[in-house]
Design brief:
- By secondary structure, the protein is α+β, with helices and mostly antiparallel strands.
- It is 47% helix and 22% strand.
Length: 343
């Protein structure tokens, strides 16, 4: 029979922080655990061990909260992964990257070596029913092709999740009859199923960007936003993106251009597009020059001709003539078709 890990009621819930890891405080890892005192207090957690893993069933009518911080990690560095299978109610998970909610039938992987916050939410009229298994991360790593993430979710449509959850439920309920070897085999099978599902989900995701790639995106976005500012310079970008001049220079090496080359090329491309689609009667060349961050029309004209082979005025006239020719050609088939119909 599974053994009781902890049970909370109206008489003992105030001691929940000292009870949630069970006798001897041997399960889970250090963290802050509390419950919603405004709800009827009814929480029961039972456990069954299988090798180095522990399967825990939590049923409750009460909302529960758990928080693990850097302070807990420093004092208790147990690296455990938890496989969560939500059967009734909901699980809300938050960390520095964001927040997600796991509905009934869904799955969540969490890891103890990164700060997080969890809320277990009973379903109205149904309560909470969650089956989860703690696995030493070095053991779980053997079932994954990639690294064990801080958090990973799979939805109820994933058949591997349903199969793994059913296997662990069988181990939890029938472990005495199965025996230690069969329990171990089934537990490993469940981990392998989850590993396969997580690998497939990871393949479908866009490749994870490195920190440098994210920082470079921030830099390029800042430059794009401030491109029309004639005072745009590396110091301004570094201050706006909270980067040192040296690190900013290293990031820009990834573009294959210096800061000046990057800014001037973007300004000239913007000017080229603007000239190509604007009406000379509405927008003067000087307005285009100042609008993309040049301080003088003469400098703009020299740079434009140097790159595109035409001065801005000639380029605009050529593009305007091309638009007129294309517009005329687009009408000719229509007139011929009408003429043919009249004949």
């Amino acid at each position: 029979m599974p053994e009781t890990l902890f049970a909370l009621d109206a008489d003992n819930y105030r001691d929940c922080q000292n009870m949630f890891r069970g006798p001897g405080r041997s399960e889970y890892y250090e963290g802050d655990f509390w419950i919603d005192e405004t709800m009827p207090v009814e929480v029961c957690a039972r456990k069954r061990t299988s090798g180095s893993c522990t399967i825990i069933e939590t049923r409750a009518a009460t909302r529960q909260f758990f928080r693990r911080t850097q302070r807990h990690i420093r004092t208790n560095a147990s690296d455990l992964s938890v496989l969560w299978f939500v059967r009734k109610g909901g699980l809300k998970y938050s960390n520095r990257q964001g927040r997600l909610t796991v509905a009934p039938g869904g799955f969540l992987l969490t890891r103890s070596m990164s700060p997080f916050f969890i809320e277990l939410e009973p379903q109205v009229g149904e309560g909470l029913d969650v089956l989860h298994m703690t696995v030493p991360t070095h053991v779980l790593r053997g079932f994954l092709r990639g690294e064990v993430e801080d958090c990973a979710a799979l939805d109820a449509e994933c058949r591997a999740v349903a199969s793994a959850g059913s296997i662990l439920a069988q181990v939890f309920e029938e472990g005495d009859a199965l025996g230690a070897d069969a329990m171990q085999l089934l537990t490993e099978t469940a981990c392998r199923l989850i590993g396969l599902a997580l690998d497939e989900e990871a393949k479908a995701r866009p490749p994870r960007r490195t920190l440098s790639e994210q920082r470079l995106d921030d830099v390029l976005r800042f430059i794009e936003i401030h491109l029309s500012d004639p005072n745009l310079c590396m110091a301004m970008v570094g201050e706006g993106c909270a980067l040192s001049p040296r690190y900013l220079s290293l990031l820009l090496q990834g573009t294959g251009q210096t800061f000046s080359e990057l800014v001037w090329s973007k300004r000239l491309e913007m000017a080229k597009e603007w000239l190509g689609r604007s009406d000379p009667r509405a927008v003067a060349i000087s307005e285009v020059a100042y609008g993309v961050g040049f301080k003088s029309t003469a400098h703009f004209s020299r740079k434009f001709k140097q790159v595109f082979g035409l001065n801005p005025r000639d380029y605009r006239e050529r593009e305007g003539a091309g638009r007129s020719a294309r517009a005329g050609a687009s009408h000719k088939p229509h007139r011929l078709a009408v003429g043919a119909m009249l004949q």
